[in-house]
Design goal:
Elements: H1 5-20, E1 29-33, E2 39-47, E3 50-59, E4 68-73, H2 79-82, H3 90-95, E5 104-105, E6 114-123, E7 127-134, E8 144-148
Antiparallel strand pairs: 1-8, 2-7, 3-6, 3-8, 4-5, 4-7
């Protein structure tokens, strides 16, 4: 049985594409945050079961350092407990997060021009994650540029 050259090339192309793809990007968010609040919701995303990854980059003036990147999940004690709750201040909104889950990224003691990081997620069910920024105790967040994927 003779295999044509075109079929061989097609087979090679399909196999190559399968082996070269190592990840798929999902949601991508990019923009500028400029608000008079000390806590602000940015975006949400959903990871299906198994494994997921979030990468982020925020940039702001060194003299106006530092803001916290907050990662809330969809448990009733977290996101629903803080979102659209004007009676809660910034400190109360941060207090529901669990430090052992690495849900707060930020360091107020270190001068930073660019905050780059990421988190890996593993879950037994679909889970929504909500991203917010905070700088409690100030009249407004520092204007900053950011991107997440």
């Amino acid at each position: 049985m003779e295999v044509r050259v075109g079929e061989k090339l097609l087979c090679l192309a399909v196999l190559s594409s399968v082996f070269l793809v190592d990840s798929v990007l999902g949601k991508y968010v990019k923009g500028i945050v400029n608000t008079k609040e000390d806590w602000v919701f940015l975006t949400r995303f959903c990871f299906l079961t198994d494994f997921g990854r979030l990468d982020f980059r925020f940039r702001y003036p060194k003299s106006r350092c530092c803001q916290n990147i907050l990662l809330y999940f969809d448990d009733s004690s977290q996101w629903p407990a803080v979102y659209k709750r004007p009676e809660k201040n910034c400190y109360q909104k941060e207090a529901v997060l669990r430090p052992e889950n690495n849900q707060v990224e930020g360091d107020g003691d270190e001068e930073v021009l660019s905050c780059v990081g990421g988190r890996s997620f593993r879950s037994v069910r679909e889970r929504w994650w909500y991203i917010a920024l905070s700088k409690c105790g100030v009249s407004a967040l520092t204007p900053l540029q950011g991107q997440m994927s």
